[in-house]
Amino acid sequence: MHGFPAALTSFVGRVAVVDQIAEQLSQYRLVTVTGPGGAGKTRLAGEVARQVAGRFADGVWLAELAAVRDPAQVAAAVATALGIRGLPPASAADALARALARRQLLLVLDNCEHVIGAAAELCGRLLLGADDIRVLATSREPLQIAGEARYRLAPLTVPDPDDPADADRSEAVALFADRARRADASFALDGATAPVVARLVARLDGMPLAIELAAARVEALGVAQLLDRIDDRFTLLETGDRLAAARQRSLAATVEWSYRLLDERERRVFRAVSMFPGPFTLEGAEAVAGADAGPAVLHLVDCSLLVPPRAGPDGRSRYVMLETLRAYGAGLLAEAGEGDAVAGALAGYALRVAEEALSELTAGHGEVAAARWLDAEDATLRRALDWALDHDDALAPDEAVAAGVAGAAVAPSLAAALAWWWQIRGRLAGQVPQLRAAVDRAAAGSDAWCACHTWLGQAAMDSADPAGALRHFTAVRDANADRGSFPLLARCLSGRSATLLGLGRIAEAAADVRRSVALARAGDDPVAEPLALAILSLVACVAGDRAGAVQVARQAERISADLHGPVARACGYTLTTVLIEVGDLAAAERTCTAGLASARDAGDLWSLGNLLEKMVVLDLGSGRYGDAASHLREALQTALRTGVRRKALEDLDCCGYLCACTGLLAEAVTVWAAVAALEREGFSAPLHPDLPEGWPQRQEALGEARQALGPAATRAAEDRGAAMSLATAAEYVLMLTAAGLEPPAAAPGTEALSPRERELVTLVARGHTDAQIAGLLTISVRTVGSHLDRIRDKTGCRRRADLTRLALSAGLV
Question: Which residues in 230-337 belong to E strands, given as ranges?
C-alpha cells in the first residue's frame, strides 16, 4: 500500500460492496466507482485496495487528483505519486505507460471528476501500454472508455420506514451511532432515539459525509433537533441555493446547515481555510484567516468540518478539510469576493515557510526536518506558486504587503526558495517550466531573478544541455558585473565554471571559479565558498595539478562539514572524484560511502545518483563486478527517476566498462554505441570518464572489444546500440545488470587480479620499468607503484622476479 492515509475511524457497512469490487478487479483492468460527492468512494477504494493488495507484485498506489487543477498535469501528478520523475510534458501519458510497462500494480485514481477527460485519456494509454496495470478509479461520472467496468456506489442502507426493527440492520444507522458515540460518549441507540435516527438518516439519503456531519452535533442539539433542522434546510436548498447541483442537494443541505450553525467569525475562518488544498497546521490557518483563527479552527473540528489533526511527515499536527467541503468553501469565497485576498495571504505563508526551510536545508543540522516540512506542505506550496504565477502581474500593493514581498513579485521569490528542495527530492527537472515562468516575472538583476536563472542553469547541466546552462549563468554574470560581492553571483560563477570545464574551455573555467572563490570569501558566504572551492579542485585536476586538486577539495570538505546537508555531499562528491583521479581509491571509497549514507538518510536523490556513479567506478577499480552491477542499476534508476539525463548517460558509459570487464564484449559495444549516438543528438557535451587513473579510456577498451568480436559482430552490435533511444538503452542496461554479471575466467594464479592488474603483471614480466609502464599506460609512476603494491598484497609476490614467474605460469607472456 503506497500513499494511502491511515484509517482513523472504523469502516462501517459495505462489506459486500468491497467484495464485489474486488471481484470486478480480478476480471477487468479498469473499474470505475461512481457516485455523488460524499458517498464514501475514497474510503471504499482504500478498503478495496487493502483487500486486493496481495494480488499485485508491485503493490497498490494511490494518486489523489483533487489538488490537480490543470488537466494537462494529470499524468505528471500520477507519475509523482508513483515516484516517477522527469516525464516529457508533451507526451507524459505515453511516457508514463512506458515507465509502467514492466510493473504489476493497482493504481487507484481518486477524485477524477474535475479532470475527467484527462483521466480517461491517461487510463486509455495505460491499458494499452502497460499489460499488468489495473486501475480503480473514483469519480462522479464514468470515464466512458473501452474496457471500463463500472460500479455505481449506492448510499448506505437505510431502514424501512414501515419496519422499526429494520434499524438494527441499517448501515446508515450503524454509521450514525458509531460517529455519534465519538462526539458524545453518553449517546445510546435505544428505543427512544433509534426511530428518530432512522428517519434522520433516511432524510440524509444514506450519504456517509452528511451522516457524519450530523452525528458531530448530537451533543449540542440532540437527534430530535437535528431531524428538525435537516428538514428545514432541505426545503431551503431545493428552492434557492445556487451552489447546489440537482444531484448534490442532500449533501449540500448538510454542508449548508453546518455552515449556518457557525457564527460570522467561524464562517470567515471556514471560507479561508478552504483555500488549503491539503493538510494544514494551526499556524497556517492563522496566516490565511487571521491571528485570532485558532479557536474557530478548533470549533470547526468539533463540527466535523475539519478532520481532527494528525501528525504529518514532519511531525507537525495538521488539519484536513474534506474535498467536498473545500469545494463548497471555494464557492463561498468567490461569492464573498475574498478569493484573491486569501490566496495572496496563502502565497505569503508559503513563501515564509519556503524561506525558513531553505535556511535549514543549507546550514546546521536541520536538513532532514526542513525537507520533511516542505514535503508536508507540498500541496500548499504548489497552490501558492500556481496562483502567484497567474496573479503576480496584477498583485495590488496591499496584497503584496500581505504576501510579505512588497515591491517584488511573489512567484520568483517562492520558486527560488523551493529550488534546493526540488533538487534534493529529484524534482528540479520537472519544475523547469515554473522556474522559467517565475524568472519572466522577476525584475532583471534582482536576487530572485538571479537565483532562478542559476537554478535553470543547474537544471540545464543535469539535462546535458551545456549551451543552455551557459546562457543562464552568463545572464546572471552580465547583470551583476558591477555589483561587487554578491553570494548569488559567486554561486552562479561556480556553475558557469563547471559548465565551461565540461566544454573543455579550461582557461575560462579557471578564471570564473577563481573569481567565485574571491566573491564568496569577500561576502563571507558559508555556502558559496565550499561550492566554489569544489569546482576549483576539478579545474586544477583537469589542468594537471592533481595534488593541488586534492588539497583544495579537502579544504572544501572541511568548510562544508559544519553545513552538513546537500552542500557537504556536493563537496564530498568532488573530493571522491579527485581522489579517484590520483589513485587513492581507499580514501575515495571512504568519502563516497559516507556521502551515500548521508544522501539516503536525507532522501537526497540528486546526490544519491551522483555518488552511486562514483561507487560504480570504485567497484570497477577493485574488481567488485557484482557490487558494480548493483550500484549501477540503482544509479541509473535514480537518474531516470529524477530526470538527470547527464547522469543517465554517464551510467550507461560505466555499463560499457562493466560489460568489457566481465567478458560481455558485444554488449559493451552496443552500450557504447548507444552512448555515442545519444551524445551526438546535441543534448550532451562529450563525456569525460573519471575512472581511476590507469584505466583504459573508452576508445582503448572499445578497440579491444571490436578486435575480439570481428567486423561482422561489431557492426551488428554498433547498429543495435545506435538505434536505441535513452529509454531503450536504459532498459537494456537494467536488464544486463539484473542478470548478475560475473568476471571472465582468469588465468591460474591471477584470479584475484582485475584486468588492469593482470596487464601490469604482463608488462613487468616483459621487463618494463615502472616509468616505462607509466608511459605506456599514460599514468603516473606513483599510480603504477600503487597498483603494484595491491598486486603484491593479493598474490604474495613481493619481487619483480616473482611477478614474472606468476605471469609465465598463468600464460600471460
Answer: 307-311, 317-320
State the pLDDT at residue 240: 34
* Bigger pLDDT: 342 vs 680: 342
Task: Find, among 378, 382, 430, the residue nearest to 643 by Cα.
Answer: 430
Return the closest-CA partner of residue 93 out of 69, 66, 123: 123
Distance CA 756, CA 221 (A): 84
**How remote is the C-alpha of 492 from its chain's centroid?**
25
Phi, psi (rounded to 5 degrees) for 70: -100, 120
Q: Give pLDDT, residue 486.
A: 66
Measuring CA to CA, how many Å separate 673 from each of 146, 617, 640, 709, 739? 41, 20, 20, 15, 21
Q: Is there a contact between 369 and 361 (Cβ–Cβ < 8 Å)? A: no
- Helices 565-581 and 546-560 cross at an angle (nearest 10°) of 160
SS3 309: strand
Distance CA 173, CA 67 (A): 32
pLDDT tens, residue by residue, 611-668? 999 999 999 888 888 899 999 999 999 999 998 888 999 999 999 989 888 888 889 9
Prediction pTM value = 0.67
DSSP 338-368: -HHHHHHHHHHHHHHHHHHHHHHHSSTT-HH
Residues 4-9: what's their mean pLDDT? 78
**C-alpha–C-alpha distance, residues 414 and 431, integer Å:** 12
Q: pLDDT at residue 329 above 90?
A: no
Q: How far is it, in rounded angstroms, from Cα 524 to Cα 493?
A: 16
At 37, the amino acid letter reads: G
Q: How many other CB atoms are there within 10 angstroms of residue 446's CB atom?
A: 18
Residue 78 has pLDDT above 70, yes or no: yes
Compute the distance between CA of residue 513 and CA of residue 536 in angstroms, rounded to an integer: 6
Separation between Cα atoms, residue 245 and residue 321, nearest integer Å = 21
